[in-house]
UniProtKB/TrEMBL annotation:
The lineage of its organism: Bacteria, Pseudomonadati, Thermodesulfobacteriota, Desulfobacteria, Desulfobacterales. This is MBL fold metallo-hydrolase. GO terms for molecular function: hydrolase activity. It comes from Desulfonema ishimotonii. Signal peptide: none annotated. Belongs to the metallo-beta-lactamase superfamily. Class-B beta-lactamase family. Gene3D superfamilies: Ribonuclease Z/Hydroxyacylglutathione hydrolase-like. It comes from the Bacteria. Residues 28-197 form the Metallo-beta-lactamase domain. Keywords: Hydrolase. GO terms for biological process: antibiotic catabolic process. The keyword Transit peptide does not apply.
Length: 274
């Protein structure tokens, strides 16, 4: 079953895309379009629909928040079809050129990873009246970048937000980097948070602040337990506030609460060294 929903937030069009071979999709992803700029491109499995949705529009550039397959899957296809430039952080260029392996659950939901030639973005990206400031925000992935349109107060935030209280991490996520990235972004002014999976058209800055507070508190509590001599497994047992069994099972261990605690314990140890 496919999900294709069109939303409009003022001049920003948002296309909600999801693929579920059996039943409704487990997760949807957003592709945003404003003037000639596309921000993230959805899953490759949704490529046919993405091509139809955008028709023969004049597209100048595709901005990628990060390389993950549910965000970058159709970048190459759209670039070829519309003669658009794909822009992203230099850290994603090699991965996007050669393609990358995806796990079975990722393949199930998104299909294979797309390929594209990625050009590093300049300090400011101008599209008519719009000016996007890329801000590197590692933590969810090393290449993660958000795009701020200051004039309108829009933040295209990829997977920086997701929700106020996250309860699982992917194995490669880093909590200390996420905290630093949230602090960095919160220094800017914006109101609309165009999240990759959950848009907040107003009050977005408050939502990001809530996530920062939650992560700081979580990191502090894990650190306190680690300092009291609790081993990692005991911290996981003590801190778990929601069952992550289903997510661990679906992702074959690639995502879970344990990764959140582990990242926090490691960061805490590193903080104590310096
Ligand atoms: Fe992601």
């Amino acid at each position: 079953m496919h999900t294709i929903k069109k939303h409009r937030f003022g001049p920003v069009e948002a296309f909600e895309l999801g693929f579920g071979p059996i039943g409704p999709p487990l997760m949807t992803a957003f592709m945003y379009v404003t003037d000639g700029t596309v921000i993230d491109t959805g899953q490759r499995r949704m490529g046919r629909y993405v091509a139809e949705l955008l028709g023969n529009r004049r597209l100048n550039r595709i901005l990628l928040t990060h390389h993950h397959e549910d965000h970058s899957g159709n970048a190459g296809m759209l670039a070829r079809k519309h003669g658009a430039v794909v822009m992203g952080h230099p850290l994603m260029a090699d991965k996007m050129r050669t393609g990358f392996n995806v796990l079975p659950y990722q393949h199930y939901m998104s299909g294979t990873a797309g390929r594209a030639e990625v050009t590093p973005f300049p300090d400011r990206i101008t599209d008519g009246r719009l000016r996007f400031r890329p801000i590197h925000t590692p933590g969810h992935s090393r290449d993660h970048t958000v795009f701020l349109e200051e004039e309108n107060g829009w933040l295209f935030s990829g997977d920086l937000y997701l929700t106020d209280r996250v309860w699982f991490f992917r194995i490669d996520e880093r909590i200390a980097d996420q905290i630093a990235s949230l602090e960095k972004v919160l220094k800017y002014d914006f109101d609309a948070l165009f999240c990759g999976h959950r848009p907040c058209p107003s009050g977005g800055k408050k939502r990001l602040r809530r996530k920062l507070e939650f992560l700081r508190e979580f990191h502090g509590s894990v650190g306190a337990l680690a300092d009291s001599g609790y081993p990692e497994k005991a911290i996981i047992r003590k801190m778990r506030f929601r069952s992550d069994l289903k997510i661990r099972w679906i992702t074959m261990g690639n995502a879970g609460f344990n990764h959140m605690v582990r990242s926090s314990v490691r960061a805490h140890r590193a903080e104590k060294l310096f």
